[in-house]
Amino acid sequence: IAAKLRVSISGQLSSQVSVNNNNVDRQASSRILEEVQKTEFSHYIVDKTAQSAHGFFVLVKVDRQAFIQDVSQKLSNLESRLRQASEGLSQKTAMERFVALHGMKPDLEKATGYAQLLIAAETDGRNTTRLRDLESLQQQARQAPTDLVFLIQARPDDADLAAAITTLLNESGIRTSQKIGRASCRERVCYVV
Q1: Distance between CA atoms of 157 and 99, rounded to whole angstroms?
Q2: Are 112 and 58 in contact (CB under 8 A)?
């Protein structure tokens, strides 16, 4: 049932083109990942069990209304914590927003999973607004690193370290600059490393 209720599919495509002595070399690779999210059931009854070469299969019965009520309560608790943590988010600096949103990620991921479970379990669409609100918060969390600009300055002896830090920040979606300027620092805020 978990595979029917919550499956995440993600993909990654990398492409590289290089030119050497008028020869063009192209390489591409792709990766697709499917993940069945962990789903906890309470108040279940084991109906059947079977052993296979790869483990055990267990057929359980779950009261639908009890399941919905349990998941809904868990979601409400997480939503309350997320509301409290996101209060005044728009008035915070880019760094404060980044830190606050980063700290919310575990609860946000759990809450999104619970909302998806409720949408799958209840077909009346009552929980789509809850999921939409959580997805909006997730989008803010994904956007938060791009609102930061770190000014990287280093002595010539430390140029390799500065390059490594720049690469690490850029891979995390955080922009870097080597000079202060209005174009390089959104909201006129730079963080010096």
Answers
A1: 31
A2: no
Question: Taking a C-beta distance cutoff of 8 angstroms, is the pair 177, 192 a contact?
Answer: no
Higher pLDDT, 29 or 119: 119
Provide the strand spans (E) within the chain.
7-20, 23-36, 44-52, 55-62, 149-151, 175-177, 191-192
CA distance 191 to 176: 9
CA 6 to chain centre: 15
Say which amino acid occupies 71.
Answer: V
The number of beta carbons lying within 10 Å of the beta carbon of residue 99 is 13
Residues 126-175: pLDDT tens digits?
A: 889 999 999 999 999 999 988 888 888 888 888 888 888 888 888 888 88
Amino acid at 161: L
Residue 61 is which amino acid? K
Q: Which two tokens stand for residue 130?
A: 């809850």
Answer whether residue 51 shows pLDDT above 50: yes
- Count Cα neighbours of 164 within 13 Å in the Cβ-side half-sphere: 4
In angstroms, the CA 149 to CA 170 distance is 10
Residues of the chain with pLDDT > 90: what percent? Answer: 27
Q: Which of 177, 187, 184, 180 is nearest to 152 (CA)?
A: 177
